[in-house]
Write a structure and sequence with these properties.
Number of helices: 5
Strand content: 5-15%
Distance between the termini: 61 Å
Largest sheet: 2 strands, antiparallel
Order of helices and strands: EEHHHHH
Radius of gyration: 20 Å
Helix content: 40-55%
Shape: globular
Oligomer: single chain
């Protein structure tokens, strides 16, 4: 396969993904589709994580978070308005936890 091209997994490799299919290196506005394109470029072998991070001025942590979100929830998880929902940990301290840490009792009739 020529440098700068890679087969795509979704179509049996019949259409080669090229650098021209990826967002431009000077991309400032990262919408869901563009993030997914960059992740697909790395997955398909078109470029390495290091090359993608350098090309788009991304941290490795940011790229890997995109990749994890796609793997766990699909490309729609990359929507900026939904990121906080998908990034939540299994347990977030709530108001009752905060009050308990400070030795305060919950208000009467409230759980916790």
């Amino acid at each position: 396969m020529a440098h700068g091209t890679a087969g795509t997994a979704g179509d049996g490799g019949s259409k080669a993904l090229t650098l021209d299919d990826l967002p431009p290196p000077d991309t400032q506005r990262w919408v869901m589709r563009r993030k997914a394109q960059v992740v697909e470029g790395v997955r398909s072998g078109l470029l390495t994580i290091d090359e993608a991070c350098a090309r788009y001025t991304l941290s490795e942590e940011e790229f890997l978070s995109w990749q994890r979100l796609i793997e766990a929830h699909g490309p729609r998880a990359l929507r900026t308005t939904r990121l906080q929902d998908y990034r939540r940990t299994d347990h977030r301290p709530d108001e009752a936890d905060a009050k308990a840490r400070h030795g305060l009792s919950p208000a009467p009739g409230t759980p916790g």
